[in-house]
Amino acid sequence: MELSGGDSEGAPKRAKLSSGDACGGEDCLSALPDDVLVLILLRLDTTVAARTSVLSRRWRRVWALLPKLCFPLAPEPHRFRDTLDTHEVPLRDLLVGAGGATPESLAIWLPAAARRVSGDLTLLTFDPGKDAGEEEGEAAQRGAFELPCFEKATSISLILGFHGLAIAMPPTGVFARLTGIYLSCVRFHGPCALGDAMSSPRCPCLQRLTVDDSRGLGDLTINSVSLLQMELRNLRGLWQVTVVAPALTELTVIYCFRNDDTQPVANISAPQLVSLEWKDCMAHLRWLGTSFYLVYGQDGLSHNHSCLTLLQRFEAIETLFLTLAYMREIENYQYLMEDMMVLPDITFLCLDVIANGHAFGASSFHALRLCTGIRRLTLLFAAPTGLEAQTVCPSGCICHQPAEWETEGLSLNHLEEVEIRHLRGSEHEVAFVKRLFSWATVLKQIKVTFYYSIPEIKAKELYQMFWSFSRPGMRMTFYIYRKFSKVVYVPED
């Protein structure tokens, strides 16, 4: 089967290949085993290797055994499909340049390719008669093709050139071995299911995802435990991105949110993120959460440096979620809060304290001193961590220093609402709450949720303490857990 046109030199070439003078006129070359012939054809480019199919019936199937096929100009679709279906030998690499491709022509041979490709697939489409800048309405008239599920491929690269081709992701199937996908100049068709197809349930090994210079991708939601690198560049029409990727280390978002008619939304959870390149609209960013900040540690701690670097990128933010964490053993470490010299101008601070039994007043005071304009404050007292959780720090622990917070004044004269969650009533918690009431002189609303296993007697004691701080016009509400349900708490007389 010949997949590309012959030429006037074909006959002489065939004579030389099959003359076999040294073999008494017999075709000795064709008598060689297939694996030997494949080694010979590997020295030729794919188009030339395919032309050997005119030599004899034997040669028609040999070239299709090549582990790598590269067609700068795609063969006739039906013949190409039949050739791919001739063998079940895994195809390590397939590169096809499909000039003038239509959705119908691609639908003919792509399913066969999906059954064969076990390595890299690269598809480039172009239309010599069209300008890449053609109007989208005109281009869309040529329709869409559905990408088959490449169950064995490890890498997929699609560069579609905007020449009237739209792509739909497969609604079912698992890309079981896919580690990387690159999509460029792609027009997505309909409610795009790219996020569904590339998330862990259907793409369990994905490590690299790049979408560049594409259209029609309005909402992208990725939930992947394996994803390491993600790049989104120049995606016209994108308005929402949701990423849950616990292993993600590199994220790039450039010129994607440029639609003035909608407010873009980005929800990203990537605790291992090392590199963030964001060159895009953030005018509506309202909530920022950082990784935990270690109060005590080695000087120059890179983890803290990353946290501070992110915070310094913002002059103002409506809501900041900040976590201050203490290790169990801190006596041989340095106090690191002095490295935190500035916070964004914020309205609502959510301060999560992981104290592990240590006094946390100094660190929390330092954070509040950097954002005295807050109007709302939520304090989260996290449970001690580890199997041998520490609820009280050792005698003489350095966590009590510096002690200025116990006497120094602080004016939180905009703070009107305070919420405290998981209050146990430890000595350190009570000491800090008392100081907080002395700093916040215009408080109007207090909400307190007690720790789920707090004894009734302790809850009542804390309830009475809070009411002793009450001022005219201040409203207080308390909650406690009863049989794992949170209910309003009012102590019995």
In a few lines, what is going on in this structure?
This protein is of the alpha/beta class and 493 residues long. Helix content is 22%, strand content 29%. The strands form 5 sheets. The chain has a 9-stranded parallel beta sheet. Strands 16, 17, 19, 21, 22, 23, 24, 25 and 26 form a 9-stranded mixed beta sheet that branches. A 3-stranded parallel beta sheet has the order 4-6-8.
Characterization of the model:
- This protein has 493 residues and is an alpha/beta fold.
- The protein folds into 2 domains: 67-284; 286-493, no CATH class.
- Helices cover 22% and strands 29% of the residues.
- The chain has helices at 10-18, 34-41, 46-51, 57-62, 77-86, 103-116, 136-139, 194-198, 302-311, 361-369, 427-439, 456-468; strands at residues 68-71, 91-99, 117-126, 144-146, 155-159, 166-168, 180-184, 187-188, 208-215, 219-223, 229-236, 240-244, 250-254, 265-269, 275-279, 287-289, 293-294, 296-297, 316-325, 334-335, 345-354, 376-381, 417-423, 445-450, 475-482, 485-488.
- Helix 12 (456-468) links the parallel strand 24 and strand 25 (475-482).
- The longest helix is centred in the first third of the chain and has 14 residues, at 103-116.
- The termini are far apart.
- The model is unreliable at 1-22 (pLDDT under 50).
